Each structure stands twice: as C-alpha cells, then as structure tokens.
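ok so I'm stuck.
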Amino acid sequence: MEPNHNYLSVVYNEGSCPFTEYPDKLANYLISRYSIKPNHKLLEVGCGRGDFLRGFIRSGIDCHGVDQSDIAKKICPEADIRLADLEEKIPYEDNFFDVIYSKSVIEHFYYPDHLFTEIHRVLKPGGLVISLTPDWEYNYKSFYDDYTHRVPFTVTSLRDIMLITSFENIEVERFRQLPFLWKMPWLNLLSVLTAWITPSCLKKNSKFIRFSQEVMLLSSGTKPKP
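replied:
not stuck anymore, here's the structure
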C-alpha cells in the first residue's frame, strides 16, 4: 500500500464523510462481543483519521494506532499513533498487543499475507485479531470505486489467509453495518429486501440503504499459545 498523504483528505474529508456516532457504536459492540477489557492493549492497523480508535478510547481501552498518516492525532491525542509503511513492518515489538483491529484496510494491500504475518508477530500469544473488509460477492460492482483497493476477499479466502498465517479459532461471517441488526439479527431479512429492491444510485442519500447493500466480512482469530 504505497503512501498517499492526500488519500484521507479526499476520500474521508469531513465535508462528504462527516464524523458520526457509528464508530462508537461499532467499538462498543466489538468490545462486548469479544470481551475486550480496559487493561488490554489494542492496536488499530490503518487507523486513518481516528474515528474508530476514538470509539475504543472512549470505552477505556489502552489504544495505539499505526498508519501512513498521523492525522488521527487530531482527535486521539491520548493514543500512541505511529507512522509506518505497513507493506514493510508494524513498528512495534514482538508479542506486544492483546487485540489488533482493522476496518477496511486489508483490501488495500498487494500482499495482505505479509500484513497478517506482521499482525501475528506483534500480537501476544492468546491475543485476538479482528478485521472487517468488504465482501467481494456483495460489493464487486463498487469495490474498485476506491482506486487504492488491491485484493478483494471472500469468506473462503479470508479464512484461508488467516489459517496460512498461523491463526486459530478463526471465525468469518457476513456483517451488515446496521447497529439494530446486531441486537436483532432476525431483522436481517428487512435489510436484504431493502438492498434488493432499492437502486444503488440512492445509497449515498441513505445510510440504511448503503449499509444494507454494502455487506462486510467480519473475521476474528487468535494467536496460538505456546
């Protein structure tokens, strides 16, 4: 993923992509689902402008971030934000983190297996990796609207890359970014029907429509203990 310091200011500028409550809601959901504790050290790989990192910070987690830009320092001054070319190395020592999180990051790499290997290296034995990435099956029409996207993932390929890079207890599932579905999954059918009957051209005007159509893959796994 070659450095491009204008990427965040163009793709995630506050005018077209304002800050919302969603990152806090997702952080709280993941903390509850995966039993992340306040004393855990969490690293967000590709923390971008810091929306999601701030969500974890607000829940009391010891947070660190790494990206090709340090713009996240603006809203996460209390976090340790480090600059890095993640195609090369995550700038932390071995066995350092309890949890490593990324969202919409792994698809930007030519060699995502190298990134997973680095994640494995800096994760403590027994530590947890959580990743969200677009599901190619549902997003193939829009995946390359982002010119920095390199490698699309399916349920199978995401599971396989985690197995190959020595993670265990791997789970991969389809995930819609609609908070009410996390508590009431039986309403998924409503989201599916909305995605099916609504033209994609309307998704920019409604987050409900957008998040009904843009299905993510949510994966988790642990680093084996000795």
